[in-house]
TrEMBL record, chains A, B:
GO terms for molecular function: transmembrane transporter activity; voltage-gated chloride channel activity. It is a multi-pass membrane protein. It is found in: Membrane. The chain crosses the membrane at residues 70-99, 119-142, 236-259, 271-290, 323-344, 454-472. It comes from Medicago truncatula. This is Chloride channel protein. GO terms for cellular component: chloride channel complex; trans-Golgi network. The lineage of its organism: Eukaryota, Viridiplantae, Streptophyta, Embryophyta, Tracheophyta. Its main location: membrane.
Length: 799, 799
């Protein structure tokens, strides 16, 4: 049906294409467990496939089959090994960050406390200076060394897993900046957390391990370099994300669900198990390290450290009347969360347009100003607050008032005239955030905080969190969100205690619900957030309450704007493809969507100068290749990618003098490229057209594009509903899609039963109990073509 | 480009198709939150759209837009309401089953125990008789009333969610059979569980609620009948599955993950939240009911009941040396699990081919024989076992020996000569399975069981489980699996205690690991099983150990055969489409897959007699429709489904005398069908061709198929790799796919940025701050066509 030379071209394209591990067009088309890469090693077998030795095909195929089995097992082992490695490394990174932060913060507070015994002014100055130095070190690292490490990194990772590669987010320098930057910024007491950066850290570690280290710093190892396809890399990064969450919250199940719900766009259940494994490894590593630290080997780390706020001694039962205040918490969370998203959006836009244009010095000054502001507020406000007398000591709860000096705990004695007094504002403000949250969540401390203190703290901290968001330091939103939420949650809890007159209500439980509601209202996560909250509080019984609060806060927040990650991704120009099409698409056709630019197509054999001028004249990344049958009719034979054209232009080995297609049967012509050359580089931007130097002689030569084509990109008819097109594009993770005219004939219909090939064979084997028969049967399927399908269609039957 | 009358035909097809809520071809193409159904109610607006009033289009569109918003909110509320309803109903069903089973079993054991105080022979006979009556009632219900309720039901549900509708699995009678059948079979002491049936029960409840009750039993309510599309129904069934698992194990997170990992084939993250909500509701309902039952209102229910085996007082730490015996447990689990799958496969095949062909009487006799056998073994074997003396009483553990009569607990005094003796075999064998598991998992009971007893029990129970599997009663494999696994787990634990000489090792923890390993080796579930085990034992710290064991047992099992659900699904002829394509497909083309039968296509206007003869002559479910342009070239204008053709034939309203296409511009012709008519019926098999009576006059008339077409089914070129075709088919949940010749032109390329429509508009709004501008812009997009796209392609540019 197709003319012969076109058939050859398509055939050689198919063979060549199957050798390219990074089929840019179809990152998810290859099946799991690395068979995508396999083809590369099988390449030799496929390459030497000749038309004269077609009878040997079955034999070769069997040999390849055997080798394949071994190779697939090898790849499977390697993948699991990498999952293990990612888990261990991310766990260790998390432990390192936590130990460092706790030590810096602990040292800072112990120094300050020992100085304020003599002079509050001197303590104030020392406190401000220590914070300033820590924040300055963080912002210096970020601005000078790794600008991509600023912010939380989750929007960028989300974009990467959605198919948008933001430059620089997975480099080694970004990893370094993220780790040390977040130590400085969190240790320096800014209103931000280390959890978002940990997710980014996990992703960086995964990506770097997958590419075998950093190419720039010559840490590359050939041995590690097995993951070349986009899909494998994405799988690794997904593992890394889950590992980051698991490490940040010690929540392995939450980590898996976070990766599943929030981050990845494509998900296969085979991947899930590996991701889960990574998360569990992280949990083991963190647990082992914490056990090791218990003996006091880690300095100030130990009593603080990893966030895990056990509320297992909180309230267990709740009456139906309590559901109303809980619903109110949900509404507040939705409103404050949506407001937070909107404010940060405005501020980030303003910063980007006015402030950060002026260079790194402005960024450094800005971060330092925020640091001083934070220090002044967190030290100065408690000074203005009158101390309260300690409550009656309750030996059952084991909580002392005031707390012993230099320790963590409730009831901080700060600027009080008497010894048995405590400053409730200092208890939450003049503390690391982890400890503050622990104090807010704590049970059996009814009436510890006055509502004025909580309200002051809420307003101030909310303001600080908004201002801090977007400075050039690594910044997570989880912990500030929990701080804000638990403050108003505890406020509501206090009113409930007051008006419901029930003493078995614990304010700490309300604080927990408040935290969940604010995170729900801002991040709009659902299942994963729910599970994370349950895992960090270690109390499965609160699940329905957390869920109720999240349902409400997410619904309220959704009425106003998108989640913070989506907003930020949009602001940064990361075009995320939603999982569902927009409503407007129902009334549009495929043809209407495909841009206003005309389609630039290439002939099969193209002159080098034409390729260069086409690549210069537009920015398209993919070009259809058109050939003509002997009768002169045009025929689309495939898609060639800009990046592949650039590789061909650079290497020049495929240039030929003849403007005629090279025929594989005449010998001599085989693919001269290593498939690795076509793999997308991880950390560089790839080849640039300007870097390629072509002589005038080169420009007069020709390239036969047939071996470099993707011979069958997905196609849609011109008038297909855009909703359907969107689903095709999104579900299969495509990058290019051809819009073609309506077909004139249908050669066949594929239904479910046509795709159950092996099952049918299994039945054969089952019946015949002979594998040799099975192989023959299989080969028959491979070589014979369906004679009916090629017959002209019998559509005159009914006319 | 297309000739005018074809364009009209396609247009009217698009309008009509958009009205059909159940677009059989594309169950997942419509976007979420019921916009799929929406079109039906918008139908009127679309229908009255005329070419004369095209200027009104923008206004109408705006009105429809407003109504849409309201309707979408309404549907959203309805969906959440149904999720709530499913949760409550499934929870109540689970409570009902559990209370009934516990009461029957409790009554049975208390009667037997009171009789054996006098005579063991009389007790034996009474015990056998009670079991026999219970099992007989179960098998009678199944064989006479609801044959589809036999077995676990999970393979069938899995098939349904994969797109294969086994007849009868979601009927009301199946629900009834499942509930009462499993009460009988579990209460009757057979070696099976009630967890699998509960999953099926949840699915039935969801489906019945979704269709508004049973049509057959006139419980149908119009009000409920909002879910007509396949996709909505599947979403409900997914919710039901998760609810079933959540109810069976009181594991809400495990339920979600089970539905995600094991059951559904298509998953959207929007659905996840709703599924989670349902699961949490179930947890609340079950918890409330159990709280209510605590006061003794539920008879024997209360101390037993829902499986939840708290091992929180089990061991917390483990040395690295213990990992070896744990790995051995994993290997044993893999081997025994794979053997179990293979044995049950053989036995089921044999049963199907030899036994169950002979009718219901054989099935009843078989079940009764199995019941008697089970009773004899579980009563008789402990009689042969010598009693052991009680250990020293340990007041800290609170475990009495022997246990008080009529109660649940360890150390059963059965056929012992002395009072302070117990029979270790009776402790696990002569008990409900839930209690036996609790006894096996229990901590602080080192040396309670002798290894002979455990080994005897293991062999006997394994045999019973294999024999019981496949009898005509509702049967779950979870609890028997846990029984088998925990037995050999405890055995290994005993050896560890003996040889490692560590007294802080708890045999109960090893029993738990054994249970996980056997389930992993048989069912091959991973994440969900892990989470379920953690949730039922309420001990998060064991997660890494459970995961290790599962990893090993699944890997070992996979070396031999598929998971039990896949094996059973294949045996029952449910063609499940795997999520990844078979390796063989890489070397095949689309054309080779599409069967040997020739494509039967219809012209646009077709004679009724031709339709009838085509429908009679083959069994295809979809037919391409071909029209001709004015120049005589054929053009594929869409796909028509057999079921829709049957509806048209039955109603006859669309028959016309003229063999010419009806033109919507001449008026008179509009779609005379209610879209509901084309919706796929839930519980009946649909219209049969033989039921349609056509007069000879009817047969001479014509039908214009244009309004009934799916105007743009997905298409693939003939030589596309079958791997790619498979992915397209599987990911989008298709039923039919057209294989067409290679296109001759590319009209456009769609890339990511072309699909980010609304985002671009949002930017506009943001910049202009005027919604009116936005609407105009939007409408412009809807009405104007891209002029470039229709120009002939400039592919001569470079030739």
């Amino acid at each position: 049906m197709l003319s012969n030379h076109i058939q050859n071209g398509i055939e050689s394209a198919r063979l060549a294409w199957s050798r390219i591990p990074n089929s840019d067009e179809s990152p998810f088309v290859l099946d799991d467990d690395g068979v995508g890469i396999l083809k590369k090693n099988d390449g030799s077998a496929v390459e030497s496939l000749d038309y004269e030795v077609i009878e040997n095909f079955a034999y070769r195929e069997e040999q390849a089959h055997r080798r394949r089995k071994l190779y697939v097992s090898y790849l499977l082992v390697v993948k699991w090994f990498f999952a293990l490695l990612i888990g261990i490394c991310t766990g260790l990174a998390a432990v390192f960050i936590n130990i460092s932060v706790e030590n810096f913060a602990g040292w800072k507070y112990s120094v300050t406390f020992s100085i304020i015994q003599k002079s509050y002014v001197a303590g104030f100055i020392v406190y401000i200076l220590i914070n300033l130095v820590l924040v300055y070190s963080s912002v210096y690292i970020i601005t000078q060394f790794s600008p991509a490490a600023a912010g939380s990194g989750i929007p960028e990772i989300k974009g990467y897993l959605n198919g948008v590669d933001t430059h620089g987010i997975l480099l080694f320098r970004t990893l370094i900046g993220k780790v040390f930057g977040s130590i400085g910024s969190v240790g320096g007491g800014l209103a931000l957390g280390k959890e978002g950066p940990l997710v980014h850290t996990g992703a960086c570690i995964a990506s770097l391990l997958g590419q075998g280290g950093s190419t720039k710093y010559h840490l590359n190892s050939r041995w590690f370099n097995v993951f070349k396809s986009d899909r494998d890399r994405r799988d690794l990064v997904t593992c890394g994300c889950a590992a980051g969450v698991a490490a940040a919250f010690r929540a392995p199940v939450g980590g898996v669900l976070f990766a599943l719900e929030e981050v990845t766009s494509w998900w296969r259940s085979q991947l899930m198990w590996r991701v889960f494994f990574t998360s569990a490894i992280v949990a083991v590593v963190v647990r082992t390290a914490m056990g090791w630290c218990k003996s006091g080997k880690c300095g100030h780390f130990g009593s603080g450290g990893f966030i895990i706020w056990d509320v297992s001694d909180g309230q267990e039962d709740y009456s139906f009347a309590e559901l109303l205040p809980m619903a109110i918490i949900g509404v507040i969370g939705g409103l404050l969360g949506a407001l937070f998203n909107q404010l940060t959006l405005y501020i980030t836009t303003w910063r980007r347009n006015h402030l950060h244009k002026k260079g790194n010095r402005v960024k450094i000054i800005e971060a330092c100003l925020v640091s001083v502001l934070t220090s002044v507020i967190s030290f100065g406000l408690p000074l203005l607050r009158k101390c309260s007398p300690c409550p009656e000591p309750d030996p059952a709860s084991g909580i002392e008032c005031p707390r012993p000096p230099g320790m963590y705990g409730n009831y901080v004695n700060f600027f009080c005239s008497k010894d048995n007094e405590y400053n409730d504002l200092a208890t939450i403000f003049f503390n690391t955030q982890d400890d503050a949250i622990r104090n807010l969540f704590s049970a059996k401390t009814i009436n510890e905080y006055s509502s004025q203190s909580l309200l002051t703290f809420l307003v101030m901290f909310y303001g600080l969190a908004v201002v801090t968001f977007g400075t050039a330091v690594p910044a997570g939103q989880f912990v500030p969100g929990i701080m804000i939420g638990s403050t108003y949650g505890r406020l509501v809890g206090m009113f409930v205690v007051k008006y419901y007159r029930k003493l078995n209500i614990e304010e700490g439980t309300y604080a927990l619900l408040g935290a969940a509601s604010f995170l729900g209202g801002s991040m709009r996560m659902t299942v994963s957030l729910c599970v994370i909250m349950v895992e960090i509080t270690n109390n499965l019984k609160l699940l329905p309450l957390i869920m109720l609060v999240l349902l409400i806060s997410k619904a309220v927040g959704d009425a106003f704007n998108d989640g913070i990650y989506e907003e930020q991704a949009r602001l940064r120009g990361i075009p995320l493809l939603d999982s569902k099409p927009k409503y407007e698409m129902r009334n549009m056709m495929a043809k209407e969507a495909c841009g206003s630019g005309r389609v630039v197509s290439l002939p099969r054999v193209v002159k080098v100068s034409d390729v260069v001028s086409i690549l210069q004249s537009n920015t398209h990344n993919g070009f259809p290749v058109i050939d003509h049958t002997r009768s002169g009719e045009p025929l689309v034979i495939g898609l060639v990618l800009r990046s592949h054209l650039l590789v061909i232009l650079q290497s020049k080995v495929d240039f030929q003098h003849s403007p005629l297609p090279s025929d594989p049967r005449t010998g001599g012509r085989s693919i001269r490229h290593d498939s690795g050359e076509f793999a997308k580089p991880v950390s560089s931007k790839g080849i640039c057209l300007d870097d390629i130097h072509l002589t005038s002689e080169d420009l007069e030569m020709y390239i036969d594009l047939a071996p470099f084509l993707n011979p069958s990109p997905y196609i849609v008819p011109e008038d297909m509903s855009l909703t359907k097109v969107y689903n095709l594009f999104r579900q299969l993770g495509l990058r290019h899609l051809f819009v073609v005219p309506r077909p004139s004939r249908v050669l066949g219909l594929i239904t479910r039963k046509d795709l159950l090939i092996e099952d049918a064979e299994n039945v054969n084997t089952l019946e015949l109990q002979a594998t040799s028969v099975r192989i023959q049967h299989q080969n028959k399927r491979l070589t014979t073509r369906n004679p009916d399908a090629e017959r002209p269609l019998l559509n005159g039957l009914l006319a």
